[in-house]
Amino acid sequence: MQNNATDKLSPLKKLTAEQEALVNQIINFTNQHLNNNFPATFTIYGDAGTGKSVVLSALFDQIQKLRQTKNSNFYQTNNYFLVNHPEILKVYKQIAGPLPELLKKNFQRPTSFINQLDKKQKEADIVIIDEAHLLLSKPDHYNNFYHDNQLVEIIKRSKVVILVFDPYQVLKMKTLWTKERLERITHLYPHKEYYLKHQFRMNASSDLIDWFNSFTENKIIKPIPDNATKNYDFRIFNDAEEMRKEIVKRNNEVGLSRILSTSGYPSTLDGGKHYIQEGKFKMPWDQYNYTSTPWAEIPETINEVGSIYTCQGFDLNYTGIIIGPPISQIPGQNKIQVNLDKITDIEMFKKEKI
Fold first, then answer.
1. Using one digit for the tens of pLDDT, what is the confidence trace for 236-271?
2. Closest Cα to residue 255, out of 285, 287, 286, 299?
3. What is the pLDDT of residues 223-237, one digit of tens each?
4. Which secondary-structure segment (H or E) carries 318?
5. What are the domain boundaries of the chain?
6. Are the C-beta atoms of 181 and 174 separated by less than 8 Å?
7. Distance in angstroms (rounded) separating the CA atoms of residues 329 and 124
8. Per DSSP, which regions of 147-252 are E strands?
9. Does domain 5-196 have CATH number 3.40.50.300?
């Protein structure tokens, strides 16, 4: 079992035949469009755990090797890898450290990329965007983004843009995306799409994966499959404290195991601790991580509850998930409902004041 995040996203990780073919397809696509005087886009669609980031990591590594190859169309190209999540960005920068073809400065957040290029009056050649569903779809003056849409601005400054997108991971009003909204932008240019479907993150039976899909997509609670625990540790706890003990045990055994929670509990970024309390369970929310180490790899965070701000898109070995007050079962039905009035993350529905 891989016990650090860099192993899970390493460009040295062996790809499947499908992933390898996809990397080659994107490189060929990029090569065809690199010398045009207009942009081109390649979009990879896929649910969580389908290996999107692994493909991008291997792809960028190959592109950066090609840029050192004379007589290559990629020679000395100006390329960037963008992700709008600070914790995932830390992982990529850690990966870049020991690999000579990868430089940490080429891994950036989108706003920094846009503002730096404008300041230098330069353009990029190839831009890879991980977690494109986290791109800002409106101005965010607090974070120094004054344009209308980050994807539009990135494409304006690039020759070829490769991005991954999962509509089920859209988190806030200021990053409001659908497949249709995305394609209104990407389809303005020469474009291609690819759909990744194989589930890597969950080594579970297809019946259990179907159960999760029914729960998350259709809000239906089906009977738990008989083979739910085959090659996969799936349990439902009535007691959050008992679940915490199991996660601590797993963390001691294999590492990268954490408690996570949905919204619905008091949380304010005011520097203080805010607790999730359910029965005997009481733990503080995650704190803003000022270090260069990803939150889940800091030993002390076993005593915190992770959120979308620390673990969205992150690959853990074991996860204990608290389903908070916003999500409840409809009385008398095997269906769940989302109670928006019980969401406590004020950033989720926050509208920018201009």
1. 999 999 999 999 999 999 999 999 999 888 876 666
2. 299
3. 999 998 888 999 999
4. strand 318-322
5. 5-196, 235-342
6. no
7. 49
8. 160-165, 191-196
9. yes
